[in-house]
Amino acid sequence: xxxxxxxxxxxxxxxxxxxxxxxxxxxxxxxxxxxxxxxxxxxxxxxxxxxxxxxxxxxxxxxxxxxxxxxxxxxxxxxxxxxxxxxxxxxxxxxxxxxxxxxxxxxxxxxxxxxxxxxxxxxxxxxxxxxxxxxxxxxxxxxxxxxxxxxxxxxxxxxxxxxxxxxxxxxxxxxxxxxxxxxxxxxxxxxxxxxxxxxxxxxxxxxxxxxxxxxxxxxxxxxxxxxxxxxxxxxxxxxxxxxxxxxxxxxxxxxxxxxxxxxxxxxxxxxxxxxxxxxxxxxxxxxxxxxxxxxxxxxxxxxxxxxxxxxxxxxxxxxxxxxxxxxxxxxxxxxxxxxxxxxxxxxxxxxxxxxxxxxxxxxxxxxxxxxxxxxxxxxxxxxxxxxxxxxxxxxxxxxxxxxxxxxxxxxxxxxxxxxxxxxxxxxxxxxxxxxxxxxxxxxxxxxxxxxxxxx
Length: 455
Description:
It is a single chain. By secondary structure, the chain is mainly alpha-helical. It has helices at about 1-20, 45-60, 75-80, 90-100, 105-130, 140-160, 165-180, 185-195, 200-230, 250-255, 260-285, 310-315, 325-345, 355-375, 385-420, 445-455. Helix 6 runs antiparallel to helix 9 (about 200-230).
């Protein structure tokens, strides 16, 4: 115990010297409250760590990958006996897997890392959605995070075709067709996606977007997202108090846990755990390279994208849903998420105080999960309206029923607690409205004055 105390105190002194000389407290690495040392508070850091791992593994893959559709005379073609038709992009991937030491581990780590990053990004998004992390003053941070999620999906889409397998090319072509169906925007984005319309032009454009354009945009938005976080700090726990402050003042932050060494080692622990799990999964279940583009000797399979776009492909299988309608639904969902801070402007952040937002979030989550599983089991099979109603209807109905019952039960108990405390409020519906000079439940007068001056 004595050594630990001495060690932490020495590190704090060293870090305090660095902070003072570098002016770090003015721009980054702010301390955090002690209650945040739980995995649920660090989902954003997990996504950033996954992105860093993708950058490292992607740069290593660039040493071997050749973005060309031209036939190549490499060892992969000689092994297959069809070197005159195997594209260079596919052959370079084949060579990496079979001839480069630990090449298959590297490629599988990059692939599963992409899946992990998308999964963690969805978790981070829904955590912020349910806990009201988009509330004032974090509207811009929420919008930047939403754009980061879209760019992450774009990274997955552009990287899917790079091994140049037949199934990945088919899925990419379907996705491009959906994008080109957008009114006005489709014609504008066509040159950026398909270049001159040749297979080489498509592969080169996807390669440039995946390796350079989207990563630069993602890095810039990630910096803005982190900068906004450093500006506002972590949000206090969600509560039903309408006067709950949404950020800490400087005097409170000085008493919080410093970045070094506590937060640094805490984040390092989770980063190493993530790396170990990723390498273990990649070693136990290495990725199998499908057949290359143009191999007519192999029976064609049903066109199917990766799991994170299965829901959109299955949506087009619904009877009466054209590609234009599917893209339109996707655009409406994106606009809803981006504008959510300005739609839900209530000061309360607890999920129990926002039943409509929770209902929408639950419905969308169930919709995405159902269509993803549905698309994986029956890709390309058209669904009649009765089938859609039989599966989506119960999900929506149960969601509305459960959220409504919990909300009514909470409202009743909340009002009973107010009456028991003897507070005098007007109750025009679900919640009391604070009048001028009304006491704050669970708060003293000095706290009310502090709230009025701090967001």
